[in-house]
Every structure is written in C-alpha cells, then in structure tokens.
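Shipment paperwork, digital attachment
Item: protein structure file
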Amino acid sequence: MKKIYNINFWFTRHNYGANLTAFALQTLLEQMGLDFQLINNPLKESEHAHRNYSFSFDFQKKYLKTTKYIDQNIEFLNSDGNIFITGSDQVFRPKYLRGKPEQFILDFVKPNTKKIAFSASFGVNKEQFLKENSQDIIEHMKNSFKSFDFYICKRKRRC
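Attachment content:
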C-alpha cells in the first residue's frame, strides 16, 4: 500500500495547533484504512534537536506517526507516496520556510501524484504577504498552487 505523507510545522517546539491538526488528520485517515505519516524534516537542524525539551515532543512521541528524521531532500518519498498533504498554519508563508518553500508547497511531488492543501494558511493578510515577498516568489507560488488537486480549508467561504 502506498502512503499518504503530510508536511506541516508539527516539529516546532510550541506549535500545539499543528500537532493537533496532524493528529486529527492521522486519526481520520487511519480510520479510513489508509497509511499516513508525517514528514520528519525540520526546517533546520536546531529545531530537530530542541524537540526533546517541549510538551510537543512528548505528544509527538506518543501519538504521531512520523517518518525517520530526514536530513536531505525529500524527493525520495515519491517512490512510495501517492498522496501528499501540506498544512496547517502558515505553511504558505515564505518568511517562515527558511529557504525550503518547495517542500511546503509540494514542488518536489511528481506529476500525477495527488497534492492536497489541508487547513493551510499564509498566516497574514494580503497586504502583509505582498510586503514580505518579491514578485518572483509570489509568481512561483501561484504556479505551484495550480498543480494542487484539492484545497480543504477551515472557512466556509471559498479558499
């Protein structure tokens, strides 16, 4: 069976929302009989090292199903993943992606593989987002978003 992979900010020290979103999604998909794992690829090494000192780490260790720690590019996950999900909070905010936006906007995913944004956000209003990012980054993100198959968001209005 191929896997469903999710990438979000679950690995940061105090991101309880990302942890709970990942756990809820994991629980739902496992109840549907699907194989789900969170991608364990922190934005920088220190985030991986500091996880041991937080409430989140205990929660993660007990409840979240993750890949082994990946310290390289994550393209190899395409070999056994047939659905990739990005989300939750601020996964579309380049300011927080520290040079790895392609991971969170799923640019590494092969064509014809399902790409889903689940409860993903930019984390700021439109004006702030435009102020923080160059036109090149915005255009790149627009083009990447065109390759997504589904957008599942919290709000009732259109995403």
